[in-house]
């Protein structure tokens, strides 16, 4: 049985201790990618030795080294340019994928080639606290294609969630969305994925098949440490969303209330910017306020109690594998 060609892209900076787990999880998949592109961003640890060792043993690996540090988003776009496959997957060096991820995702994308991407339930581990929960648990009960109009309905009901670490993307759909815009920093993947998804629809596998390990120093967390920069990025996203070339997806994102995920900072931006108060829809407001509340409760809740709550309240699809 043939599957679409997949390029796996791994950008790395000083994650030598995590790379073996990440790379081995990719190499152990039942369906192998067409290539594994590893871009080291001028690491100062022994990452190069680790990658070299894997590359010598596995011809699938194409290794590129930056002479100077270029940053995460630069590496993502560099990988996109280098990719030869029709589909791309970004495997963070400190995360890992679970068995069956490629086979089940690519199988769906073969059935629905119009889809922008295929995603799964995301398995999230907060390393410092031990908190573990799943995202997109209630999106759909069976694997299949979700059209843009259905995505809007699911989002309005608080059920849509596209976890970027669990998304295999059609390369052309991401290029059409404008690639990963550096000015959007921590949110560049969210923007590209949601624009492409609301434009073409998505596939979904209702199983936790990709594990996201959240470290205190993660790039994912860096926006929250600089509130003003955080709001500036959100302002740029709103400006971009309202440009002519995105007029096909802007109403869907607005009507669905998808911007709720950015919590208090996006609410502050929308309240201050009269031109964008139309995004303050009932769907946005109830989801946004509940999201802000949950984030505050998570900070104040002991880990054992938080994990107990996640188990009984539907934030776990099944028992996951602990992070290595």
Provide a short characterization of the protein structure.
The protein is α/β, with parallel strands linked by helices.
Task: State the end-to-end distance.
Answer: 32 Å
> What is the β-strand count?
10
Number of helices: 13
Biggest sheet layout: 10 strands, mixed
Report the mean per-residue pLDDT as an integer. 93
One letter per element, helices H and strands E, the order comes to: EHEHEHEEHEEEHEHHEHHHHHH
Whole-number radius of gyration? 19 Å
* Fraction of residues in H or I helices: 40-55%
Q: Pairing-aware structural class of the strands and helices?
A: alpha/beta
Describe the global form.
globular
Low-confidence stretches: none
What percentage of amino acids are in beta strands?
Answer: 15-25%
Describe the structure.
The structure is a single chain. The protein is an alpha/beta fold. It contains 13 helices and ten strands. The chain has helices spanning 19-27, 47-57, 72-82, 101-111, 148-156, 171-176, 188-200, 219-222, 227-241, 250-256, 263-272, 282-300, 303-312; strands spanning 6-12, 35-40, 61-65, 87-90, 96-97, 117-126, 131-135, 144-146, 167-170, 202-214. Strands 1, 2, 3, 4, 5, 6, 7, 8, 9 and 10 form a ten-stranded mixed beta sheet that branches. A hairpin with a 4-residue loop joins strand 6 (117-126) and strand 7 (131-135). It is globular, with a radius of gyration of 19 Å.
């Amino acid at each position: 049985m043939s599957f679409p060609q997949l390029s796996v892209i791994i950008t790395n900076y000083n994650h030598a201790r995590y790379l073996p787990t990440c790379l081995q999880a990719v190499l152990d998949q039942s369906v192998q990618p067409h290539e594994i592109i590893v871009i080291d961003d001028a690491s100062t640890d022994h990452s190069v030795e680790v990658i070299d060792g894997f590359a010598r043993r596995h011809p699938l690996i194409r290794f590129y080294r930056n002479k100077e540090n270029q940053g995460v988003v630069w590496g993502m776009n560099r990988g996109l340019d280098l990719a030869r496959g029709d589909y791309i997957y970004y495997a963070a060096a400190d995360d890992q994928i679970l068995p069956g991820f490629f086979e089940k995702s690519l199988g769906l994308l073969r059935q629905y080639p119009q889809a922008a991407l295929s995603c799964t339930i995301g398995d999230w581990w907060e390393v410092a606290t031990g908190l573990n929960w799943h995202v997109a648990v209630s999106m759909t009960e069976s694997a299949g294609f979700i059209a843009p109009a259905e995505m809007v309905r699911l989002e309005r009901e608080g059920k849509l969630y596209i976890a970027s670490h669990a998304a295999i993307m059609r390369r052309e759909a991401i290029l059409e969305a404008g690639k990963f815009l550096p000015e959007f920093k921590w949110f560049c993947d969210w923007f590209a994925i949601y624009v492409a998804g609301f434009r073409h629809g998505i596939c979904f596998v209702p199983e936790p098949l990709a594990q996201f390990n959240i470290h205190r120093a993660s790039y994912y967390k860096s926006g929250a440490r600089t509130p003003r920069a955080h709001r500036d990025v959100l302002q740029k996203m709103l400006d971009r969303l309202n440009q002519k070339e995105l007029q096909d997806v802007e109403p869907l994102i607005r009507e669905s209330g998808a911007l709720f995920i950015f919590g208090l900072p996006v609410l502050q931006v929308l309240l201050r910017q009269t031109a964008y108060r139309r995004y303050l829809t009932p769907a946005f407001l109830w989801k946004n306020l509940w999201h802000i509340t949950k984030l505050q409760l998570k900070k104040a809740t002991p880990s054992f109690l938080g994990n107990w709550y996640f188990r009984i309240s539907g934030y776990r699809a099944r028992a996951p594998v602990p992070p290595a």
